Amino acid sequence: MNVRIRFFAGAKEIAGAEQLTIEMQSPSTIGDLRVKLTELREEFQQVASSLLFAIGTDYVTNSFVIEPDCEVVCFPPVSGG
């Protein structure tokens, strides 16, 4: 299945693109996607455990099952002051 990933902030810099479409086995979880990202770009290994993922406006956890042709948003933790 194809999964579209939109990247923001530091995750976009690591990905080298604002959006990627990658092929995943079906079914796959956000945890599987996290591993796949580290396989695609070695730089993701340093931040993979802290990346946040969302579908629509909802944050999702590693156990969330990704639907085919879904768009996943990926970004580093947000901090403010």
Structure, explained:
This protein has two helices and seven strands; from the N terminus they run βαββαββββ. Helix content is 22%, strand content 33%. It has one domain (2-75): Ubiquitin-like (UB roll), CATH 3.10.20.30. A hairpin with a 2-residue loop joins β4 (52-55) and β5. The chain has helices at 9-15, 30-40, and strands at residues 2-7, 19-23, 28-29, 52-55, 58-60, 65-66, 71-75. It is α+β, with helices and mostly antiparallel strands and 81 residues long. The strands form two sheets. A five-stranded mixed β-sheet has the order 2-1-7-4-5. A two-stranded antiparallel ribbon has the order 3-6. The model has no long low-confidence stretch (mean pLDDT 92).
Short description:
The protein is an alpha+beta fold and 81 residues long.
Topology:
Layout lengths: L1 E6 L1 H7 L3 E5 L4 E2 H11 L11 E4 L2 E3 L4 E2 L4 E5 L6
Parallel strand pairs: 1-7
Antiparallel strand pairs: 1-2, 3-6, 4-5, 4-7
